[in-house]
Every structure is written in C-alpha cells, then in structure tokens.
Amino acid sequence: MTERLEDIAAKMVADAKGILAADESTSTIKKRFDSINLESTEEARRDYREMLFRADDAMKNYISGVILYEETLFQKAADGTPLAELIKAAGSIPGIKVDTGAKPQTFFPGETITEGLDGLGDRFKKYYEAGARFAKWRGVIAIADGLPTWGSIKANSQALARYAALAQANGIVPIVEPEVLMDGAPGTHSIDTCAEVTEWVLRTVFQDLYDARVSLEGMILKPNMVIDGKNARKASVEEVAAKTVKVLKATVPSAVPGIAFLSGGQSSEEATAHLSAMNAGYDLPWGLTYSYGRALQADALEAWGGKKENVAAGQRAFTHRAKMNSLAAAGKWTKEQEKAA
Ligand code: 13P
C-alpha cells in the first residue's frame, strides 16, 4: 500500500518531534568543518552524519525526519548499512534536499533564483526508491536597500510551486522553504520590515501553490521567523513570537498540517526560546515545530571536533539540543531545563 502524503506530513510534525536539517551541500559542510579544522572528505562527512543518526535517544524521541543531501541518501555507514536505513530503524523518515542551489538571478542584482527543476521528476523516482518520503527546496529572499523585488519573489515562488507539484506527483511530501534572510548583507533591517516582507512572500507562495494545484494537506511549510536582521538584533522573545504568529496566521491556510522553522543564524538557545514562546502563548491551527540545521548541530559539531573518541560527547550534545527543541515544540521549554543538563 502506498503511504498517503497527508499521513507522512502529519507524522513529520506530530508528538512534539521535529526535523533535523542535515542537508548541507558539499560547500556548506566544508564551511562547518573548517570551524573545527577538519578536512571535508567523503569519509569525514559520513562519520559526522553517522554519529548523528546513531544517537538513538535523540532520533527515536525527538526527530521525526532528517533532510539529507544527495550524497548522504546513497551513502553507507562504516559497517555497510545504508545511512537512510539507520534513520528508518529509529522510526524517523529520510528526506532529501532537491534544489541545486540559489544562483544569481539575471537582471536582478543582489538577488538569487533557486535552480534544479529540469529533470526533477526523474530524480524524484530515484530518491523515492532510496527511501526518501519528503523533500526540501529553498528559495532565498534578501532584504536590502530596494530589495526584495517583486520579480525575484515571484520567480522563486513559482519555482517552489512547480517543485511542490512534482514532489507530490511522485509520492513525496514537499517542504516548501521560502527563506527571508536574517543574516544577509547588510542585515540591519528592523523586525517590522521582516514582517512586511515575510507576509508578502508567503501570500505569493500560497497563491502560486494554489495555481499549481498543490495539495496543502500534503505539504509542510518551512519559513523564517519574523525577526530583526543579524546586525540589528534587539527584539525580545515575546516580540518575535507575537509577530511571527501574526504573519503566519494571516497567510498560512489551516489546511497545512505543519510549519517547521529554519533557524537561519539564530543562536541555538534563541531558536529554542522563540519556538517555545509561540507554542506556549498562542492557539495555533497547525503543528509548529523545528527543522533546524545549525541550531540543532552546532553544539554537536563542536563537541565531536572530528575525533572518534568524542562520538559519545557529540551524540550527547545533539540529544540535549533535540530534547530542548522538543520541549519547545510542546511549549514547555524553560531556561532552567537548559541548565539542568
Ligand atoms: P538552518 O536552521 O541552519 O537555517 O538550516 C535550515 C535549513 O535547512 C536551511 O535550508
């Protein structure tokens, strides 16, 4: 029996679990490894990700799905087990990043368009076969003087909609990720500017999803939080939560089963605090959880440091962050629990 998209999507955001974004491209993971002075070889990437996927407590209790980069989906653990099988064995769902990156958009200085649509239908068949049941595509919107432009928002939104339709046609739940950057240059914009741009982007995306005949019940939205730019940070946790919920309620239909945030350059603890404040303080029509990359992995990467003898320490750090975020997805995280660990 084929699984229904709605059931997969519901499972991705149920039970105070969330998604681990471990889909760094080869160039992005190199940057992460540079921070611990580790050379980014295929084996090092395998070892790092195997460490995360073998963190049993975290994977079984707090992680509903893992977004993989293509290399990882087809990679085997040191003992020969496919990494995707490790994820499934923990009761979690393997997913796949399918866009091929944000490239400079012709005639739109300072803006990008995400590529990867050509041949995507055939790629989905291959990914499904390898066990992927959901996918991710990230469109990137930058705020700067005179940006974003309508032309860039519209082009990125239509690409997201075409990707989402192709995913669903192949039995795969699309994570639709339109990211309004918090850490793009110059990063000095206010939280109200972020709210305005995020609302504009999400209204456009849901119109294009409708026009592309995408089933809202069979998708997950992965948005940025409404937050001030990286070089302008001063909004309180309460303000981020209130403004994010306001924009999401105004733009995301309640037919969408779940919203899973990106962390976007927030510190690990900030990303947790913001999520918890939203779940604790508001009545919400969708599941609201995490799909963090950096905010789930930063501590684990540092604790591991690329050394075999630190695998257990890396797994402990990952498990702690995953647990804190699971509490946040239930609206039950406190600073004291952070310290108790
Ligand atoms: P961050 O949480 O590090 O922003 O990564 C999430 C992600 O998948 C970005 O595409």
UniProtKB/TrEMBL annotation:
Belongs to the class I fructose-bisphosphate aldolase family. It is an enzyme of class 4 (lyase). The keyword Transferase does not apply. Its EC number is 4.1.2.13. The lineage of its organism: Bacteria, Pseudomonadati, Pseudomonadota, Alphaproteobacteria, Hyphomicrobiales. GO terms for molecular function: fructose-bisphosphate aldolase activity. Pathway: Carbohydrate degradation; glycolysis; D-glyceraldehyde 3-phosphate and glycerone phosphate from D-glucose: step 4/4. This is Fructose-bisphosphate aldolase. GO terms for biological process: glycolytic process. It comes from the Bacteria. InterPro entries: Aldolase_I_AS, Aldolase_TIM, FBA_I. Keywords: Glycolysis, Lyase. The keyword Membrane does not apply. NCBIfam families: FrucBisAld_I (NF033379). Gene3D superfamilies: Aldolase class I.
